Amino acid sequence: MTAYLKLDHIDKTFRRGAVESEVLKDINLDIAKGEVISIIGHSGCGKSTLLNLIAGLTQVTSGGVLLEDREVNAPGPERAVVFQNHSLLPWLTVYENVALAVNKVFGGVKTRAERNAWIMHNLDLVQMTHARDKRPAEISGGMKQRVGIARALAMEPKILLLDEPFGALDALTRAHLQDSVMQIQAALKNTMIMITHDVDEAVLLSDRIVMMTNGPSATIGEVLTVALSRPRMRLDLVADPAYLAAREAVLKFLYERHRFVEAA
Amino acid sequence: MSIAAMKTDTTTPAQALAPAKAAKTLQARLTARLGLMLRAAAVAVIPPLITLAVLLMIWQIGFGRPGATLPPPTQVWKEAKDLILDPFFVNGPQDIGLGWRVLTSLQRVLIGFSLSAVVGVLMGAVVGQSIWAMRGLDPIFQVLRTVPPLAWLPIALAAFRDSSPSAIFVIFITSIWPVLINTAVGVRNIPQDYRNVAQVLRLNQVEFFFKIMAPSAAPYIFTGLRIGIGLSWLSIVAAEMLTGGVGIGFFIWDAWNSSRLPDIVVALVYIGVVGFVLDRIVAALGSLITRGAAAN
User: Are residues B200 and A105, on separate chains, in Cβ contact within 8 Å?
Assistant: First the structure.
């Protein structure tokens, strides 16, 4: 069986004049269709660089990213990104922000009415139809991120890439959004790769957790399979031994074996 | 009066106080609002009027004595009264009100400025997008933008061999630089996030220009346009020294040649007021259009 998304011996080196810094070294990972993967690691370990490589926003130095056996070397809507700081265009309304994506991706395929219905459907998925005519400056941070997710989902991506999507939100809003994402994923069976630095978030949401070693020359230290059945309920999991074991494994990796030296 | 006062005093709170109070507060609010507006208007208008009066007085005292080199305000009023009071009279092909002249000049400025706005924004977009275009062109722009309007005159005349396109060229070449340079800075400052969104959506160059670049750089572009319209109005006298005809710039040149100093003074005031209005129009347009982009 070939993997849906394959990261094959990826190295990434940034050059600035004569200075070279190797950020990622020998990254290998196979991801199946419909799988939810979290990438966790201390800051500066190249998590975001890895996501940008998959998105095609940055080019690999050697190795390759293969989606359905085809090499990825440019960005495209089949690998939609939910950016950390939402990246909504402030001069467009909520509706227009999603419409920009829908009109571009489905401009030739769907009729005007179908596109409108599709935009509203995606806003409905993230419960944002009520704010369709508001501008990003007029809605809260959590709402902006919801719209960002709607915009990404509306592209009908093969893979949904989330770059610390809930990092800038308060704990309550974050929990709400995590639940929303879980529900949407359960319904649509998206393949997702999510960058995070929140251990609970990683365990709660993912099928597998990819733990990165510290940079420079960061690589995948361990991959933990989270053996929890879905749907997962936040409250039920609090005392679940499997949940606690997974949580402990990630914490041990991050704070025992790969302690962040600069933070110590 | 005292009866009315008595009546209000004697009504019980439960009966009439609520509606009376509502009416009273509404009236009070309106009066207060009107008062505030009047006050704001007074604050805006009275200080410049006082300054103007003081300046006119100094001018009158300074140049009022016989043998003064410039005409005092009273003489300007006496000799150029027709120009001040009626901007739109027509007494013959060359004897027309300054309003007509300003309109002719405005037409010329608008052609030159529109050209420089379009070319400036497009070239600014290229310079802002491409690091090599910037390295190659920016130093040249920085040198060219310091050349005064008058210095372009002979070059323009030699190139076009006709006064009308030369005048428009002078306006164009004077006002294009701030538009171009500000657009380039605005484009260079487009957040990487927006560029990433455009890349993920695979927007092509044209879509990127209209959907991302123009709205994102709009505040910068309008700053450039505002400086540009000011400069193009500044170059009107230089431009109209060539074209002759009925423009306000040529009027000044003509008045100087026939020693009508009071007329020049009036023309200067016209030019100043029109320039001020142009500046405000572009500024208002800018704040109207960039409403969304500014609020991030």
Answer: no
Query: Does B71 fall in a domain?
Result: no
8 Å CB contact of B202 and A104: yes
Closest CB to B293: pick one of A81, A91, A101: A91
Closest CA to B121 of B17, B3, B214, B205: B214
Cβ distance of B203 and A79 shorter than 8 Å: no
Q: Which tokens in the block code for residue B88?
A: 């739109």
For residue B17, the model assigns a pLDDT of 52
Neighbouring-strand partners of residue A218: A24
What is the interface pTM, i.e. ipTM, of the complex? 0.87
> What CATH number has the domain bearing residue B146?
1.10.3720.10
Residue B26: pLDDT band with limits 50, 70, 90: confident
Judged against a pLDDT cut of 70, whether residue A166 lies above it is answered with yes
Q: Which domain holds residue B177?
A: 80-290
One domain, residues B191 and B155: yes
Per residue in A75-102, pLDDT (tens digit) is: 999 999 998 888 899 999 999 999 999 9
d(CA B286, CA B179): 13
Q: Answer yes or no: do B85 and B58 share one domain.
A: no
In a domain, B162, yes or no: yes
Nearest CA to A193 among A25, A3, A12, A2?
A: A3
Residues of A in contact with B216 (CB under 8 A): 89, 91
Q: Is B49 exposed, middle or buried (0-12, 13-18, 19+ CB in 10 A)?
A: exposed
Q: What is the pLDDT of residue A264?
A: 43
Within this chain, do residues B59 and B201 fall inside the same structural domain, yes or no? no
Residues B41 and B105 in one domain: no
Q: What is the pTM of this model?
A: 0.79
DSSP class of residue B125? H
User: SS3 string of chain A?
Assistant: CCCCEEEEEEEEEEEECCEEEEEEEEEEEEECCCCEEEEECCCCCCHHHHHHHHHCCCCCCEEEEEECCEECCCCCCCEEEECCCCCCCCCCCHHHHHHHHHHHHHCCCCCHHHHHHHHHHHHHHCCCHHHCCCCHHHCCHHHHHHHHHHHHHHCCCCEEEEECCCCCCCHHHHHHHHHHHHHHHHHHCCEEEEEECCHHHHHHHCCEEEEECCCCCECEEEEEECCCCCCCCHHHHCCCHHHHHHHHHHHHHHHHHCCCHHHC
**A185 to chain B, closest Cα gap in Å:** 21
Asked whether residue B49 is domain-assigned, the answer is: yes
How many residues in chain B? 296
Count up the domains in chain B and report the number: 2
Cβ(B266)–Cβ(B76) below 8 Å: yes
Classify the phi-psi angles of B92: left when phi > 0, otherwise alpha if psi is within -120 to 50, otherwise beta. left
Pick the closest to residue B204 from B191, B213, B192, B217 (CA basis): B213
Q: For the CA atoms of chain B, what is the radius of gyration? A: 28
